[in-house]
Design goal:
By secondary structure, the chain is of the alpha+beta class. It has 13 helices and ten strands. Helix 9 packs antiparallel against helix 10.
């Protein structure tokens, strides 16, 4: 490992998770946009059997979910937990999902492509995510006939995915860069480098809680390793910029006041809307990043950012809730998580 990479070995203050996604299609079927329901069902059955009956140590850890059988809340919760794309639940007929027991792997069947293999790992772990995704891809490749061209590589419905069919991405918390107004300029610069930075749910979504998704956009004429290395290099630059901007903001009395106020509201509020909660959790995470809340870990905040989402709240409760009920339960979930996290007296007296 280079000296530069050693300096960024622990990036949990900025990087929430790593995702590797492979897009694959079966040679003997048209792309999903051209398939009828019967063809979609045949593809779903074929892919399901290849995963569950394959010679892999993790085959028996997959659960198959028929998307048409889910409630709306259950389907939306999958999006909120970053297990499927928003497009995948827009029309659930003929679509299936293979989900690993720990939810680190999700395989969408009949989304934009026949197969979307997705692996998510905590923090910046390209090697771990890619290795597992590659093993699952090999498992399918041994049993299925993928659409592949010697010159173009893997064939996909969208031309932007042709080639490796791989998209690598990082989920980043960038409150300082957002606060400084630098994200617009950064987004334009990244586009010139073949990368995109979007909201926490990908294309067209907002960066709630200052959470962004950074991903590669080039899949043709570049190897998977090159794409990952390029993304890692850019991510390291973004991490350095966020840390530098954070240091400047941490000395701002108004920013410090917002951090402490956010903790107080989260700790004692009886009602929290989703937008307010995400904003406050972002400030709380900022407080951890600058050392104010050294007893609260990043995982607690990262998990809360998912658990407080509307559909996930209802899924966990097991019933539909009115907006007012969601606000009450959301506040209760946050309070319960923070009750066990007390700020040391010495830290409370600082500033």
């Amino acid at each position: 490992m280079s000296e530069k990479l050693k300096q960024f070995k622990d990036v949990s203050d900025v990087v929430i998770s790593t995702r590797i996604r492979f897009a694959r299609n079966l040679r003997d079927y048209p792309f999903p946009c051209r398939m009828n329901t019967e063809q979609k069902c045949r593809v779903a059955t074929t892919v399901k059997e290849a995963a569950l009956e394959g010679h892999s140590a993790i085959s028996d850890r997959f659960r198959y979910i028929q998307m048409s059988e889910l409630t709306q809340e259950e389907a939306v919760s999958l999006v909120e937990r970053h297990l499927v794309s928003p497009e995948f639940i827009s029309d659930r007929e003929g679509r299936g999902l293979l989900l690993l027991d720990d939810e680190s792997v999700s395989i969408m069947i009949n989304e934009e492509d026949h197969i979307r293999i997705q692996v998510i790992r905590p923090q910046m772990d390209f090697e771990g995510a890619y290795d597992l995704a590659d093993k699952i891809d090999t498992l399918f490749d041994e049993q299925l006939n993928f659409a592949f061209n010697d010159k173009l590589g893997y064939l996909t419905q969208c031309p932007t995915n042709i080639g490796t069919g791989m998209r690598a991405s990082l989920m980043l918390h960038l409150p300082a860069l957002k606060e400084s107004g630098a994200m617009g300029k950064i987004g334009a610069s990244l586009a010139k480098l073949g990368l995109a930075i979007r909201g926490m749910y990908g294309e067209g979504s907002d960066p709630k809680g200052s959470v962004y998704q950074l991903s590669n956009q080039v899949t043709l004429g570049i190897s998977e390793k090159e794409a990952i290395n390029n993304l890692r290099d850019i991510a390291i630059q973004l991490i350095a910029q966020e840390r530098a901007a954070r240091e400047a903001l941490a000395a701002d009395e108004e920013v410090l006041d917002n951090i402490y106020r956010s903790y107080g509201i989260l700790r004692y509020a009886k009602l929290l809307s989703n937008d307010e909660c995400m904003k406050l959790l972002s400030y709380l995470r900022f407080g951890i990043e600058v050392g104010i809340f050294d007893n609260i870990d990043f995982d607690t905040v990262n998990n809360l950012m998912v658990e407080v989402q509307p559909a996930t709240l209802m899924k966990n409760i097991g019933k539909k809730l009115t907006p007012r009920e969601r606000d009450r339960i959301r506040a209760e979930v946050v309070r319960t998580a923070l009750m066990r996290k007390k700020i040391p007296a010495s830290r409370r007296l600082e500033n």
